[in-house]
Structures are given as structure tokens and as C-alpha cells.
Write a structure and sequence with these properties.
The complex is a heterodimer of chains A (341) and B (259). Chain A is of the alpha/beta class and 341 residues long. Chain A contains 12 helices and 14 strands. In chain A, strands 6-7-8-3-9-10 form a 6-stranded mixed sheet, sandwiched between helices. In chain A, strands 2-1-4-5 form a 4-stranded antiparallel sheet, with helices on one face. Chain A is elongated, with a radius of gyration of 23 Å. Chain B has one domain. Chain B is built from 12 helices and no strands. In chain B, helix 2 crosses helix 6. The chains are: A alpha/beta (341), B mainly alpha (259).
């Protein structure tokens, strides 16, 4: 077997199936290079968190292999944990403890020498900008402060690989931006490999060198954001009729300019991917005018990762979030409860 | 036990004690609720001391044993609810990602509740003596009483830890309180067993280990040092602790699925 780099992630045919329900993770393959930020993008319930739980050794896979930091997760869980840090969904903190007390506990549990614990904790608290709040109970922290402390705690033992499970969900733009900068700095300056799950397209686009898109437990696309968008090729046009009853007519007109796929509908809007780069907005407007379809809104936009998701799954990521929400949050079913006594 | 496990146990214990003492909603009812019940019983049932064969002429002294055991029952919900919260919030996952041992987790989890148990025992003893109860076993008996309180709180705390690992839900753990509270009423809480007239009640109280916990504590207040009563009380407390500790460790393995 070829040597696995100690800061990489290698996954083949990984499967997790819960008792009641479909396969949460259905045979995924992954390869994450050392020092890379890998974005794992998908809607709620797609299998992102389940994948992270398996890669962080917290949930045993049902099939397949996963090597993290050079160790197989099922056979060498303790070795894997020595090399990874993780900030899982929802910052898991004790509201009754201060940031400094969290650091004290975390450094001790990771076995740092007693003389180094306080300094390491203080350095990390300083790095994430919580020095002024270090002696306040975490229960009074904002969401952004909790996330920053969560990140700092995951770095206590100097991990080579960092798993961040939706680290910016629910954060305000300023806190989100601050966290992104820290993640970028970790990868760039310290060579930390970052496996980042997100449901935010902007986050994946901004941070990740490569993106894997997961839906219903399967990876439907993988590559650099640029390459994935280039696969889609052309821009899309999206229009909203002034009279919602005419959305069918509008779809028929737009289909003439499309690449052959059926127009997609989101609420009142009708969209289609254009077949040629030369199609101008004016031509579309003239065609709609010719059919006497009054337009409330019309725009052309360059391909995004959401377009990639749409192209691969037939749904938009935003629409899938709503579907996922109805089925229940992924986190809610990620662990089977222990069998009844 | 290796030094790493000692360090882990010490730090998790510290966290448990700090967390417990920073929750007035846990500490205040734990201290006051048993004292209210004591006041009501001591005031309303004093006439029971006139029953021939009643072991003391002070019902307060007789009933003072009850809060020490009642605090154990409260420990079930306190220790269980705290741990269930850790499971629900993902804090247990955070701990599971460290080299923490399961033994350190369980021991650390119980430390806070045992510390609260000692505080409760001191308060009950102080209030009881100030209200006129006697402590026949004297100062040495007070230390034995504290030791027995630790054993009782530990034993019931283990039930809470087991329930939390098994159920993983704070509300479900809280639901155990009324169930366990019934065991207090089906014991020799209000009358010595030999003075209970109803056969079925006397039989239930005889098989109920809570009776022996109460009688062990009570013996220190009324009789001085009664070896048999103390041995039964310590034995029952330790047996409850050992049984549910073993069950808790087994449930921990199921709950913590880390590879």
C-alpha cells in the first residue's frame, strides 16, 4: 500500500446506514491533500455531518475505508484523534464555565504538560480575540464568540487536520468574516488541512480550494469551484412574469434560448441556462415582448455553485434546505440511540 | 490508574463541582426542599412519639435522617440532568475527541454531586441540631454521618449517570424523580418498620433498601453507634453505587461509539 501523508484524508466507499431511514452516507470517495481547505457542500440531511462524525472517529462506518492522518479510523481511532481537531455543529460549550476554564480542561484532557497549559490556553484565547472575555462565563457569549472559542479549543493540541462542521451557521457577517480569516490563516501559515462542511455557497467559494457537493449521501460533483462552474459553462437567465399565470408561456419562450434542459421554476421565477455565450439579454426581452408577456423581473447571472448543484441534482441548494428541514435536521438523526434496556 | 487518568479525573471533577455550584437552581432546592419536608413532618407527626415502642421522644430527631436520603434522590436528577445536557449539546463529543478515559468521565461527573451532597449534609445537620435534634453518636458520629452521606449521594448519583447515558435526554432523566421519590414514602421514613401496622407496607419497607439507608443515618441520631444498622446502610449505599456504576460504564460504551 502506498504511504499516506500524515496530513491527508483518504476515503473509499464510505457507508453509514441508520436503522430507520435511507443510507445517510452512500459510498463516498474523498481525497484531501495536506494543507488544503476542502469544502463539503450540501443541504441539510445530505450526509455532511455523518461523514464528519465518521472521519473524526465518533461514529463507526458500516462499510468502506477512511484513513485520516495516515490511520484507519476504525482500527486506530486514538491515533486519528491525536492528529485532528474538530469543531462540530453547534459550539459544544459549557455555559457555566469561562473560556479560560474551558481551556484548562481541554489542555489537561489532551495531556499537555502542566507548565504549558496556561500559556497555550491564553495564546489561543488571544488569537481568537477573546482575551477581554476570557474570565466571563460562556453562557453570556454571542454566537460568534462561542464559535471562536470552539475553534480555539479544537486547536489546543496542535492538530494537523481540522474538521469544521458548518462553523459559521447562524453567525452575523462580521463574525463569519473573522472566522474565515482565521481558517485561511491556519491553512496558509500553519499548513493545517481543513475539512469544512457548509451549506453556504459563498463560504465554499471563498475558502475552499476544492469542493465536494454531497446530496442524499452521495458526492454528485467534485473539483475546484472554478472548474465546477466552468462545467456548467454558460450563464443563466432568470425571469419573473408580472402575471404568475403566464409562467408556463414564459418557460416556453425561455426554452428557445436554453441549452436543451427544461426550464427550472423557483416560486414565480423561471430560469434557463443559456445555450450560447452570444445570447444577449435584449434578444430574450424581444422574444418575451413578442409573446406579450409582461416581465416583472429579469436578470442574467454567471454560473455559481448553486447552478452546479442544480445541474447535478435538478434542485437548487436553497430549495433543498427547505426539503431537508421538513425531513429533520441531519444532526437529529446522526446517532442511533443506544438499544433500550 | 495512570497519572494521565488521575489528571483527567481531577479536571473533570473540578469542572463538575464548579458547574454544580454555579447553578443556584440545583443547589438551593437541594438544600431547602428536604428541610421544608422535615419541618412539615416534624410538626405534624410529633404525636407519633407517643406510640409504645417509638425509639425517641423527639420526632425531629427521628425524622432528621430523611433529608440525608432525600438529598440522594435529588442527586439522581442533578447528576443525570447535567450529563444528559452534555450529551444533548455535544459537549460529550468534545470530550470524546480527547484521550479522556471513560472512568475519568464517570468519576468526574459524580464529583460535583458528591460535593453538593457533603454541603447538604452539613446544612441538614446544622439546621437539625439548631432546631433541637440530638446526635447521640457525638462528633465522631458526625464524621460517620458525612461519610454515609457521601456513599448515599454517590450511590444515587450513579443511578443518574446510568440514566443519562441510557436515555440521553434531560427531560427523561428528570422524569425519574417522582418514581424514586415514591421509594422514600414506601420506606421506614415516617415510622420504624416494626411499628408499621399494614403488613404489605411493612413488607415493602423491609425489601426497600431506602429503609436501611434511613435507618443507618437515624441510628447515629438516636442510638449512637449501631454496627448492624450502619453496616446495612453503608452496604446498601455501596451496592446501589456498584450496581449502577457497572451499568453506567456499560451504557457509556454504547453511548460513546468512538472507534
Amino acid at each position: 500500500m502506498s504511504e499516506i501523508h500524515p496530513a491527508s484524508i483518504e476515503v473509499e466507499g464510505l457507508v453509514k446506514e441508520f436503522k430507520k431511514g435511507p443510507r445517510a452516507v452512500d459510498g463516498i470517495d474523498l481525497h484531501v491533500e495536506p494543507g488544503e481547505i476542502y469544502g463539503f457542500l450540501g443541504p441539510n440531511g445530505a450526509g455532511k455531518s455523518t461523514t464528519v462524525l465518521m472521519l473524526t472517529t465518533l461514529l463507526p462506518p458500516d462499510a468502506g475505508t477512511a484513513r485520516v492522518a495516515g490511520y484507519e479510523v476504525r482500527e486506530n481511532g486514538a491515533r486519528v484523534r491525536e492528529n485532528i481537531g474538530a469543531a462540530l455543529q453547534e459550539a459544544a460549550l459549557d455555559p457555566h464555565l469561562t473560556a479560560r476554564e474551558h481551556m484548562r480542561l481541554q489542555t489537561a484532557l489532551h495531556g499537555l504538560p502542566k507548565a504549558e497549559r496556561t500559556k497555550r490556553g491564553d495564546d489561543l484565547i488571544e488569537r481568537v480575540g477573546l482575551a477581554d472575555a476570557a474570565d466571563r462565563k460562556v453562557g453570556g457569549y454571542s454566537g460568534g464568540m462561542r464559535r471562536r472559542l470552539d475553534l480555539a479549543l479544537s486547536l489546543v493540541h496542535g492538530p494537523r487536520i481540522l474538521f469544521l462542521d458548518e462553523p459559521t451557521t447562524g453567525l452575523d457577517p462580521q463574525s463569519r468574516s473573522a472566522l474565515w480569516e482565521e481558517v485561511e490563516r491556519l491553512a496558509r501559515q500553519e499548513g493545517v488541512t481543513v475539512f469544512l462542511t457548509t451549506q453556504y455557497l459563498e463560504e465554499a467559494d471563498r475558502l475552499a480550494r476544492r469542493v465536494g457537493i454531497i446530496d442524499h449521501g452521495r458526492i454528485v460533483a467534485e473539483g475546484t469551484p472554478e472548474a465546477l462552474k466552468a462545467e456548467i459553462g454558460e450563464s443563466s437567465v432568470e425571469a419573473v412574469p408580472a402575471d404568475p399565470a403566464r409562467s408556463g408561456d414564459m418557460a416556453r419562450v425561455l426554452e428557445r434560448f436554453g441549452d436543451g434542459d427544461c426550464p427550472h421554476h423557483v416560486d414565480d421565477s423561471v430560469g434557463v441556462r443559456l445555450k450560447g455565450g452570444d445570447t444577449s439579454l435584449a434578444e430574450v426581452v424581444r422574444a418575451l415582448d413578442g409573446e406579450r408577456i409582461e416581465v416583472a423581473h429579469l436578470q442574467v447571472h454567471a454560473p455559481t455553485l448553486d447552478d452546479v448543484f442544480l445541474a447535478k441534482t435538478g434542485r437548487t441548494l436553497e430549495g433543498s434546505q427547505e426539503d431537508g428541514g421538513e425531513e429533520g435536521e441531519e444532526g437529529g438523526e446522526r446517532r442511533p440511540a443506544p438499544a433500550a434496556a | 490508574m495512570t497519572s494521565a487518568v488521575w489528571t483527567q479525573t481531577a479536571e473533570l471533577s473540578r469542572r463538575s463541582v464548579v458547574r454544580t455550584l454555579r447553578q443556584p437552581a440545583q443547589v438551593v432546592p437541594s438544600l431547602t426542599f428536604p428541610l421544608f419536608l422535615l419541618a412539615i413532618n416534624a410538626g405534624g407527626l410529633d404525636a407519633a412519639t407517643a406510640i409504645p415502642g417509638f425509639p425517641t421522644d423527639s420526632y425531629l430527631t427521628f425524622a432528621l435522617a430523611v433529608p440525608f436520603v432525600q438529598s440522594g434522590i435529588i442527586a439522581v436528577t442533578n447528576s443525570g440532568a447535567d450529563l444528559a445536557t452534555d450529551i444533548e449539546t455535544g459537549f460529550l463529543d468534545r470530550l470524546a475527541l480527547t484521550p479522556m478515559s471513560g472512568a475519568a468521565l464517570v468519576a468526574g461527573q459524580l464529583a460535583g454531586i458528591v460535593a453538593l451532597g457533603v454541603l447538604q449534609a452539613l446544612v441538614y445537620l446544622g439546621v437539625g441540631l439548631a432546631a433541637g435534634a440530638g446526635l447521640e453518636a457525638g462528633l465522631a458520629g458526625a464524621f460517620v454521618l458525612l461519610a454515609l452521606s457521601v456513599v448515599i449521594t454517590f450511590g444515587f448519583g450513579c443511578i443518574g449517570v446510568f440514566a443519562a447515558f441510557r436515555l440521553g435526554d434531560g427531560e427523561a432523566v428528570q422524569g425519574l424523580f417522582p418514581v424514586l421519590f415514591v421509594t422514600l414514602f414506601l420506606s421506614s421514613m415516617a415510622l420504624p418498620r416494626d411499628l408499621i401496622e399494614q403488613d404489605w407496607f411493612r413488607t415493602v419497607a423491609t425489601y426497600n433498601p431506602v429503609s436501611y439507608l434511613i435507618e443507618g443515618v437515624r441510628s447515629l441520631f438516636i442510638d449512637g453507634f449501631d454496627g448492624e444498622a450502619l453496616a446495612l446502610a453503608f452496604g446498601c449505599g455501596l451496592a446501589i453505587g456498584a450496581l449502577f456504576l457497572a451499568l453506567a460504564v456499560t451504557s457509556l460504551r454504547t453511548r460513546l461509539q468512538r472507534t
